Amino acid sequence: MILNQNSDFIFGFEAKMTNPNGDPDQENKPRMDYETSTVLVSDARRKRDIRDFLKRKGYPIFVDTLADKKVPMDKMFESIRDQWLNDEDNFTKLLNEETILQEKWNQLVDGQNGNFKELYEKMSKDKKKKSLFVDFNNSFMTAIIKKSLIDIRLFGSAMAVEGITRTFTGPVQISWGYSLHPVELVKSNTITSIMNDDASTFGKKHKLYYALITHYGTMNKYSAKLTGMTEQDREIFRKALIQGIMNNQTDSKQGQSPLFYLEIIYAKDFDGYIGDLRRFIQVHYNEEKSIREIHHLTIDFSKLSSVIEEMKKNGYIDNVVGWFHPYVDDSIFRHMPEYVSLDLWQPIANKVEG
């Protein structure tokens, strides 16, 4: 079932003796807001973790590499497009399932028979059929996304590809993350040897001591209709957000652990959002001591709980769901809103094509 309710969500994770998001313009040091001494993490970093994790689970990913090499978007489109056109059984099945796509294909080829790939390439060179070709391509890409490309169903894409004019706005939007308190960078950076093909050089490992970092995000029901994001996709996204960061255990990323996920699901006829949920969360700590552990913080949700209760009374909220790390002392979380508990450690089934 296509997603039919808007939602706000907040995701919190801790970063301990690690580099949550290196800045290539600053020697790969942690991204920082030096005015507030808070650490920053881009939305691209979060999406990369999710894409990499889902790829490992067997899901085809559009924003990816080909043969371990970065390729432009049009090359990736060609690769995925040709997989469908070269598989006559799958392409025939797709046309049979997508009535409008079949009508556009029939208009494009106008009774000509032959190999799907050869017909497609022939039509692409026919200037008289340019409009029909672009129209078919838009519907073809939409059908492929709905059928197999979960990362575009979730995050969308501008599709800077010749022959495609449709833009796919992602139903899931994730803001940049930032720490809810000032952080300290490790002053003594470890020097490490970096091996290249024919030589070795020396580099530095940049880390911070400790940070509680949160991302805010939204899910939009209208954009979901355009990309085909389903309720099942939402469940997969939640788990991939938690499990993706756990599976990114590289040398620089080790030390990051998800702490909580909270999602406010609005009533079906409600079109608004509360907005950035981090505005309603207060973090308390001793300003005279360094923050090195989660226990040095207290996270107060009382303002958020009040807002949620008020919205519920107005009938705007359908449900609140959440996950908290089961082995973190929950006494640090104060005045939590009522929520339905989710098991986001539950494994995501491996994707089986067919």
What is this structure's SSE topology?
Blueprint (H helix, E strand, L loop, with lengths): L6 E12 L3 E2 L5 E2 L1 E2 L4 E4 L1 H14 L8 E2 L2 E2 L2 H13 L2 H10 L1 H11 L6 H9 L5 H19 L1 H6 E2 L10 E2 L2 E3 L2 E3 L10 E6 L4 E6 L2 E12 L1 H7 L3 H16 L9 E11 L15 E3 L13 E3 L1 H12 L3 E8 L8 E2 L5 E2 L13
Parallel strand pairs: 17-19, 18-20
Antiparallel strand pairs: 1-14, 1-15, 2-3, 4-5, 5-11, 6-7, 8-9, 10-14, 11-14, 12-13, 15-18, 16-17
Helix pairs in contact: 1-9, 3-4, 4-6
Keyword list:
354 residues; alpha+beta; nine-stranded mixed beta sheet; three-stranded mixed beta sheet; globular; CRISPR-associated protein Csh2; Cas7_Csh2/Csh2
